[in-house]
Amino acid sequence: MTSTHGHHGPGYPQQAGTGERRNGFGIAALVLGIVGALLFWTAIGGIVLGLLAVVFGVLGFRRGRRGVATNGTMAVIGAVLGALALVVSSVLLALGVAVINSDEFKDYQDCIDHANSQSDRQECARDFDREVDDR
Fold this sequence. Notes:
The chain is an all-alpha fold and 135 residues long. It has five helices and no strands. It has helices at 24-38, 43-66, 72-100, 103-114, 118-134.
């Protein structure tokens, strides 16, 4: 029996002189992009992880183009997922800020502050829904 350990036969090209592959940025971009896309509804998940995925994706893509990484496509996919998470999370954050700063929300908050019972709070919610629908 012959040992094939360490032997590079046909179909297994040697990579002598190419150095060690540096795929960390592409892997990080993909993982951060996926997690950011899953947590887009949170500021940390969508914005921070999305931004990090874009940065690592660009760095990983550049490594792939230089030939020091073999997962340039993975880096691009991570960057795209991160960018989508970043955009959607930013839009949700902007909408949330707009609602919180609206007159209707201030009226609702004032109503809740002066409500004495659960039924009063439910009436505040109904009034808020009506005001938003009328807008």
